[in-house]
Amino acid sequence: MLWGYIQSFITIFLGIFIEAVPFLLAGAVVSGLISEYVTPTWLQRVAPRRPLGAAMSGVALGMAFPVCECGVVPVTRRLYKKGLPVSTGVAFLLGAPVLNPIVIVSTLSAYGWSPMFWGRMGAAFIIALIVGALFHLAEPAMMLQADSDPHHEVVSAPTASFSTVIAPSTGRRRFWLAMASAGDEFLEMAQFLAIGCFLAAGMQVLIPQSALMVWGNHPVYSVVAMMTLAFVLSICSTVDAFVSLAFVTTFMPGAVFAFLVFGPMVDIKNLVLFRQVYRPRAVAYLIVLPLLFTAVFAIAHNVWGG
Q: How far is 114 from 244, CA to CA, in rounded Å?
């Protein structure tokens, strides 16, 4: 019995980690390119300053970058270091995992031009926009970790890294400097991804899915069950639409909708990654606000949407 649990844990852990690593690597590469080619002066000049405009630009950025919930974290952190407003980064962080081109195509392949497709995209857009605008009211120093805040100086002893072995230059060497920075970013974030995958695998072994399935026909409990399942499974948003098809006949539509919206925004593995960018209070807001908005939309659909 114990060996069976251990085997299940190892299989689930490797499955989540192997699925997530390519996207984390892609995010790290984008982060490295930003570190070398995007200047703080340019970013601060083009970034909107009004709450709604700043959040809207973050959502638009998320629709352009093909990164999921794993890859979006290193990109967001790098943009913060360049001076991106907190609200824009939050809107990008929450919107990109659902609204990026790859996920749009995968959701369309799974559901077609159905209300589920439009509901997922529309809800993700609205939640990212509102939460991003709310974060505009906060002071960056109160929300961001010290090494993500461009206004906070951190003095530390030099350490060996990829980027220390390549001198700054132009042209081809500048590109390789960006890739070296990407290597540093990937190695740093991969260890926290492994911790998140470890926790997600442990939760899946300890909480059997059958315990949640009995709530499938209740308008409120079904939403709670599917949001919990999305948080625990930690499935990449590029494939979660196909996974959700398995629950269409056993759970109410609002519950499946909640799985598709909340899971990409907040799950166990990216929760660990959030802590490398945001302070604990900000992480709490990033959990509670999407959770509440998604639950309200999903329950309302179950009760009044038919």
A: 14
